[in-house]
Amino acid sequence: MTNWFSSWTNKLTGYIQASGLFKKMIIVNRTMVSPVQRQSVEVGQFKEALRSAEGWGQQRRQLLDIYANIELDELVKEGMKRRRRSVCKDLTIMLDGKELEDVEHLTRKSFFRKAINAVMDSRFYGHSLLELDWNTDGDGVTAVVDRRHVKPRFGLVVEQPFDMSGMEYRNPPFNKTAIEAGDDEDLGDLLQCCIPAILRRMNYSDWAEFAETMGIPIKEGKYTNEEARGILEEAFKNLGAAGWIVVPDGAEFKVHNPANVGQNSDIFEALHRACSNSISIALLGNSMTTQEAESGGYAQGKVQQDSESDVLDDDRQFMLMWLNEKLTPYLQRIGFNIPEGAEWVYEQEERMGKLDKLKVLEGMHRMGVPVGMTTIYEWMGIPKPSEDDLPPEQESDDEDDVEEEAKPKPAKAK
């Protein structure tokens, strides 16, 4: 009876229970998760949510709901995806230059990928808490505890976001499966994206209203008597949704535009570009949108690319620290044989293009620096040809040519 009543009330209140996949999870199954509040967000609401998140009670629910809303922005979404992609590939664990195959196979499992994504998301949302249920057979489940229920300042997971008592996940038995990512007070990079993303959405709305009002011609009709007025009104109503006005003959109708704006949408486009640049800087460290990258010069693009590479490199360093300091001890606890000195690393990624490599080789040749042919083939990524692949030498033709050249030519008759 109690279970039926709890299930019924949860449906009424909108709470979400953990699925059967997480039946062994002791933290996830003790939180009553409510859906994200989807609504139009104003700058004032964001500031209020920020004060609550930074306050003594660390009430992050309202701020995280705003994060979930701005994540629907295509520019925010793409920036987050780009950074996730950079940390999820080329991971391996090495000992004395060799891979630990018994552990490395985890990198090809979906539950491992989910854990990596959740750790990366702590860069966007702030402190995150994972609950892992993995085993040495290669099976596992990864659950992300709803961040709105986690109060890292107190080390608590609460049943309701506004509670101030709950599970102390840093103490037994919870600390056997719970792993943290991010600092206790960190609110993530999406914090800097909130205001420009909110203004960008509001600008879209105003821009659309401007296009509807000023982009469609307004029909004007003049009448001299009430009968003509009725005929005009009825005719305009049947001509579609475009604006129209009916005035007495002799009356004047004008549309006044703001000074220095004219009848175009330059002001909306400028605000849109400024907000987009702010979001790009907050997430990727550069202000070049796709359109600007296409029209910008090489030097400008190179600087922007280097700036983005610095951000991605920092993400990778953050991920390696989490893997070596947090995940490795967990894997050792559940039975994986990871010797002392083994480290998670990223396989070396080649960033220099072949054309740049060719220029370096030409410069070394001009300087007289000897470079072996094997090194050149390996560096350029070209297989070194075997003897069978080489073209046959044209010995007979060449010898005949040499002999012909060696023979003295007869002197010309005088």
Task: Report the order of strands and helices.
Answer: HHHHEEHHEEEEEEHEHEHHHEHHH
Strand content: 5-15%
- Describe the largest sheet: 3 strands, antiparallel
Which stretches are poorly predicted, pLDDT < 50 over at least 5 residues? 1-20, 394-406
Helix segment tally: 14
Instruction: Name the strands of the widest sheet in spatial order.
Output: 2-1-11
Shape: flat
Short description, anyone?
About 50% of the residues lie in helices and about 10% in strands.
Word description of this protein:
The strands form four sheets. A three-stranded antiparallel beta sheet has the order 2-1-11. A three-stranded antiparallel beta sheet has the order 4-3-8, with helices on one face. The protein has a three-stranded antiparallel beta sheet with strand order 5-6-7, with no helix packed on it. Mean pLDDT is 78; it is low at 1-20 and 394-406. The protein has helices at residues 2-13, 43-54, 61-70, 74-88, 101-104, 110-125, 190-214, 226-237, 266-284, 290-295, 298-333, 354-366, 373-380, 395-406; strands at 91-95, 98-99, 128-134, 140-144, 150-151, 156-157, 167-168, 178-181, 219-223, 244-248, 343-346. It has 414 residues and is mainly alpha-helical. The protein starts with a helix and ends in an 8-residue tail after the last helix. The chain is flat and about 95 Å long.
Topology:
Layout: H1 2-13, H2 43-54, H3 61-70, H4 74-88, E1 91-95, E2 98-99, H5 101-104, H6 110-125, E3 128-134, E4 140-144, E5 150-151, E6 156-157, E7 167-168, E8 178-181, H7 190-214, E9 219-223, H8 226-237, E10 244-248, H9 266-284, H10 290-295, H11 298-333, E11 343-346, H12 354-366, H13 373-380, H14 395-406
Parallel strand pairs: 9-10
Antiparallel strand pairs: 1-2, 1-11, 3-4, 3-8, 5-6, 6-7
Helix pairs in contact: 2-3, 4-6, 4-9, 7-9
